[in-house]
Predict the structure.
Amino acid sequence: MRKNSIKNVRINEEVLRELSQIIRSDIKDPRIHPMTSVVSVEVAPDLKTCKAYISVLGDKQVQQDTLAGLKSAEGYIRHALAKNINLRNTPQITFIMDQSIEYGVYMSHLIDQVSHSDSRKKEEEHA
């Protein structure tokens, strides 16, 4: 199976949906922040490994705690995934912190600052 085949894309979407559901409702670890979301999932074509990119709303300590909680619950998550999705192999999950949402908010804030200072300079010129 090729990496970007239709079958692989469907498997990625299904694993993403189930992983989100498991993290949101099944795991009771207090280290895992309630505002944790699975951004994307990449299942290897041989179905042996899976990279799950997660995003956590909070500071660095909250993100590290959530990552530690997910890594400790990895066995349970994999078991629940095997129960809910019928795959030949249940992939070994690696959780990776995704900073893209945080980076996007930061860039949006910078753009707002520039546009605000730009409009202030125009007002001063016309006054």
Summary: The chain is about 55% helix and 15% strand. The helical segments are 6-26, 60-72, 74-84, 100-126. The longest helix spans residues 100-126. The mean pLDDT is 88.
